[in-house]
Amino acid sequence: xxxxxxxxxxxxxxxxxxxxxxxxxxxxxxxxxxxxxxxxxxxxxxxxxxxxxxxxxxxxxxxxxxxxxxxxxxxxxxxxxxxxxxxxxxxxxxxxxxxxxxxxxxxxxxxxxxxxxxxxxxxxxxxxxxxxxxxxxxxxxxxxxxxxxxxxxxxxxxxxxxxxxxxxxxxxxxxxxxxxxxxxxxxxxxxxxxxxxxxxxxxxxxxxxxxxxxxxxxxxxxxxxxxxxxxxxxxxxxxxxxxxxxxxxxxxxxxxxxxxxxxxxxxxxxxxxxxxxxxxxxxxxxxxxxxxxxxxxxxxxxxxxxxxxxxxxxxxxxxxxxxxxxxxxxxxxxxxxxxxxxxxxxxxxxxxxxxxxxxxxxxxxxxxxxxxxxxxxxxxxxxxxxxxxxxxxxx
Length: 395
Prior knowledge:
The chain is an alpha+beta fold. The protein folds into 2 domains: 200 residues; 165 residues, Reverse transcriptase/Diguanylate cyclase domain (Alpha-Beta Plaits). Helices cover 66% and strands 9% of the residues. It has 13 helices and 5 strands. The protein has a 5-stranded mixed sheet, with helices on both faces. Strand 4, helix 13 and strand 5 form a beta-alpha-beta unit. The relative contact order is 0.09.
């Protein structure tokens, strides 16, 4: 049985924006990967079964249609193997999952029709030895597919039904007690296989989702529920490589809460934790694109990674955070003040020579520049946030 623990390696970048939807898409991708990785086994099983059928019926059915059918089986399964090998190299992204599922179901239907054609064209009435031999091959190929196709929600019945229905009809209309007995047993047999298929899918899906959930939790900050430093580092590196390939800008916004330690000591850690969670929620609401990542780097420092965002876009994000903070000030109960925020913004169009560390250091330098500028104006600013930015560069 394919490993149910094979899951995509991409971090849960939408955690916790859309945990159920993200986990479901990743689970579907993992199911597809399990099937595509075993496409060579599918090729060998179909070709060997087809060759066995052709050899066994060569002397009793028209040879030209039989040879043509076998050639189609071989060509089709070689093409499916090459496609599956290519798709198995990288887990599909969200846009590709549906396309790959459609491809899987389409190829499964075509494979089923090939075998259903054999059940119709190469059935030999009144010849129990040959007709039951054909039935044995068809039952074997459908039974052998149970485990692998059960990794998809409904691939197995899509494959089995087009084969067993014409086979059962052929056996049922033929003479002989053995044919009638096999025709009567086949529906029950496949009903049991279908139940087994659903159990396999349920078990593997639960296993995959559990593994994905653990992976996402390992990348999640426990207090705020957003990405942690590990997830941030992985995401920033991935988006840097993507920006290098596409030549698109990449923005990093660092933010921390001004005088948070003093605020925490004055109001208590429970209130401080509530402030951290409120800031995290605010950043998630502002950075709402699926391509964005909000992370807590530690303490009172947060980060927003915005791929494909230029300088005006970065300024717009900061402006929306400012507006959101004003709303949080008004929502605070019992007249509690809400601490101010300081931002450091860096937007670059990275090259191969650049590193995530260089981007982080630029944003961090901008953050401390803003901190120093704020400290020079007043010890505490009541409502406004300072921002320092780095110019668009190739740093």
